[in-house]
C-alpha cells in the first residue's frame, strides 16, 4: 500500500519519530478526515498530507453501524493517501455531530480503542469543538456558531469551562439551522396555499426548484424522504426570495438571525466571556453554509450585528482551515501540552 | 367462521337482503373499524354490530405494506365479530389519515377493489371527512377540526365544494396538533436549560414524566423514537403546567389555539360558509384529544371563542358517535342517495 516510505528519517514531510495526526469532522451531511504531520512547531499554513471525504456520520441520523463504517472508511482512506502507516499515528481527534452526552463520547472512545494501538491518543468531541479550533488554530477559547443543515453554539473559556446552546435537532427547535429556515419556508407555502397566511414568492420558487406542479405535492415530497440535508438545501431559494423583497422570506431569515444570535448570547452569558463590563474581547468562529457571506442578504453578518449590540468585544473569525484540520490542530495542541507536562491543564 | 347466520331473513339485526356497511377510521395512533346494518331508515342510536381496533394505518408513518395489513386485519375482525359474511358487505368507507392527494385515494381504492367483490361500493376519504360525518350523522356539511396527535381542518358545503387547511404533518408546521404542542414544550425545556429562554415548570414535570434525570437526556430521548404519538402524549403535562400558572406553557397553548382557529377560519372563508354577512349557521365538529373539554384549560372552547369572533354562526358539535361510525354513516348516505337516483349529486 505504501512503497514511498522507508523506516526512519523523513518521508512525505513526516518525521517518522514524531508521526502523524488524524483530524476528523463528522457532520450530518458529510465527513472529512485529514492527516497532518506532528512536529515541534506548528507551520503556517498547516501542511495537510491527505484529505478524504465520505457521507453522514451522525449516529442519530444514520444509526450506529453506518456511522462507524463511515468513520473507519474515511480514516483509512486519509491514512492511505498520506502515505503513512497506521503505526505512525500519534493521535486521533474526532469532532462528530451527534455527540451530545458523555455517554456518546465514551461509546465512540471505546470503539476507537479497539481500532488503534494503546499508545495512540484519542479525543472525541462534538463537531462544534473542531469547528472552534479551526478558527483559533487549535486553541479552545471563544465561541463557535455552526449553522449548516443543523445549528449549534459552543463556547470555551481559557480556564477550561464550556457551555453549549441549541444543537438539539429539528424536533427540539433548532430554528436557525438550514433545516429550520427551509422547513419554515415550506410551511409558509402550505399556509399561503390553504389560506392561513398571505401569498409568498416562495411558492413558485420552491415548486420550481423541486419540480412539483402544486403545493399539494409538498406533503408527499417531505414524507418521501425527510432527510434534514434535503430540506436544508432549499435555503438559497429562501435567501433569493428575501433579496427580491418577499416579506415572508425576509421574516423567516430575520427570525433565524434572532435564533442564531440568541444561542451565541446564551453561551457567552453563561461563561461570562464578555467580562464584567461585557466589553472583553473574544472570538466568534462562524462556520457553515447558512453563515457564508456570499449573498447580499448576509445571515452571518446580521447575527454578528445582533451579538455586538450586547457584547461589543465579540470578534468574528472566518476560519482559514476547515473543521477537520481544526480537529487535527486540537489533537496537536493536546499532544504538545502533554509533552510540556501540561496535560492536566488541557483547555 | 359464522354459524349464527342463515341464508335469507333477518339475523343479528341485519336484513340479509340489505346487508352491512363497514366504516373505518384510520388515524396516526389507532385504526377502528365498525360494522353497521344497512337499512331503509337510519336508526338513532346507530346500531353498531361490531367494532375492531388496531394500530396506525397512516402510510406516511408506517409505510404502505404495514398500513394495508392493518386495514385488512381490522376489517376482517369487525366482519367476523358482527357475524356477517363478506358477501353481505354492501359498502366500505375508509376515512384514513395520510390521504392528502387524489393519488393516495386512487391507490387505496385500487387495492380495495382486489379485496371486495365488484358490486361493493367503495369510498376512500381523509379521516377528517369521517370525523365530520360523525358530528353530522353522515351529512357532508360544515367544518371539522381534528386535533389529536396531528391536526387538520376540513370543510364541505351543501353544494359539494370542499376545502382543507393544515394536516400537512410536523415538518410542514401543524403547530396546533398534540405533536406540535408537545414539541414546543420540549423545545422550551431545552431553551431554558441552555439559557436562551426563562425557566419553566415544564422542565421538572416533563423530566419526571419521562423518568429522565436532566434536560441533556432529552436529545437522546427524542432521537430514540421520534414517533409523533409518543411526543404528543406529553400534552396533558403542558396543560397541567399551564393550569398551574406557568407562563411558557400558557403561551404554548395560546399559540396552539390561534393555530387551530386559523385553520378553521381559513376553510370557512374559502368556502364562504359564513354567508355574505358572516353570520350564517354552520356546524364545527370538534374531534381529538387536544380538544376534549375535560380540563380547566379548555383548548377546544378557546378555539371556538376565537372562531366565533369572526363567524358568530359557527356552532360547535361534539360528535355522539366515533369517526368510524361517521365513515359508515357516510357510506350509508351515499348508498341511500344512489338508491334515490341522486348519486351524481353526492355531497
Question: Would you spell out the secondary-structure blueprint of this structure?
Answer:
2 copies of one chain form a homodimer.
Chain A: E1 10-11, E2 14-15, E3 20-26, E4 31-37, E5 50-54, H1 59-62, H2 64-82, E6 89-96, H3 102-115, E7 121-126, H4 127-136, E8 142-147, E9 151-156, E10 162-166, H5 178-194, H6 202-210, H7 216-224, H8 228-232, H9 235-243, H10 247-271, E11 282-287, H11 299-310, E12 314-317, H12 323-339
Parallel strand pairs in A: 3-6, 6-7, 8-11, 11-12
Antiparallel strand pairs in A: 1-2, 3-4, 4-5, 8-9, 9-10
Helix pairs in contact in A: 4-12, 5-10, 9-10, 10-11
Structure description:
The structure is a homodimer of 347-residue chains. With 347 residues, chain A is of the alpha/beta class. The first copy, chain A, has 2 domains: 10-137 and 321-345, ATPase, nucleotide binding domain (Nucleotidyltransferase, domain 5); 178-317, Nucleotidyltransferase, domain 5, CATH 3.30.420.40. Chain A has 12 helices and 12 strands. Chain A has helices spanning 59-62, 64-82, 102-115, 127-136, 178-194, 202-210, 216-224, 228-232, 235-243, 247-271, 299-310, 323-339, and strands spanning 10-11, 14-15, 20-26, 31-37, 50-54, 89-96, 121-126, 142-147, 151-156, 162-166, 282-287, 314-317. In chain A, the strands form 3 sheets. Chain A has a 5-stranded mixed sheet with strand order 5-4-3-6-7, sandwiched between helices. In chain A, strands 10-9-8-11-12 form a 5-stranded mixed sheet, with helices on both faces. In chain A, helix 4 crosses helix 12 (323-339). The first copy, chain A, is globular, with a radius of gyration of 22 Å. The relative contact order of chain A is 0.15. Mean pLDDT of chain A is 90; it is low at 1-8.
